[in-house]
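User: structure tokens for this one?
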Amino acid sequence: MTPWELKGREFINCTCDYGCNCQFNALPDKGYCHAVAAIIIEEGHHGDTRLDGLNIGAIFKWPKAIHEGNGEAVAFVDERADEAQREALLKIMTGQDTAPFATMFAVFASTVTTMHPPVFTTITAEVDVDGRRGRVRIPGYVEMQGRPILNPVTGAEHRVQILMPEGFEYEMAEIGSGTSTTGGPVRVEIEDKYGQFARLHLNNDGVVRSRRAA
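Assistant:
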């Protein structure tokens, strides 16, 4: 197994209402799950291959709960990545070189039946985790925006966090509102639903934790 590690920021938008039942081992509130994701890699490596400064993304569609499978997905890799970096990123994103079910990459890959060919393209991404704001553009494929949840009476920004002491994706996520429109082989329309903003620190064995579980 080739050792890898990455640190970065993610923005994910799915069809669940704010909170996302999946975060609590419950079924998706729409009966299905559609999701759009982007990660800005601040630091990373796969073996001797550096991954610093690259962006990745994906679109997912599951007809029922994620764990029930039959998902459809397409992965996006930063066009700036060279051949070694592309190979490394795709291995990580498809759950290779990873302990069984240790990361969300491995978990999601195990539930996908139709994996479309990866797309190497421009990925423009801005993610402000604390501000619960994000913007992702993959020309021809993804337009995604995120903002804070707003109080329906006062219009003030509403802040909520989810802590996952034993999760396979993050330790803590800021929750906001996301809107996405996609093109290409996997079509998704999401308006003002669950937006997840998180700092990631992952390796072959899962989340590298800075917090101690209570």
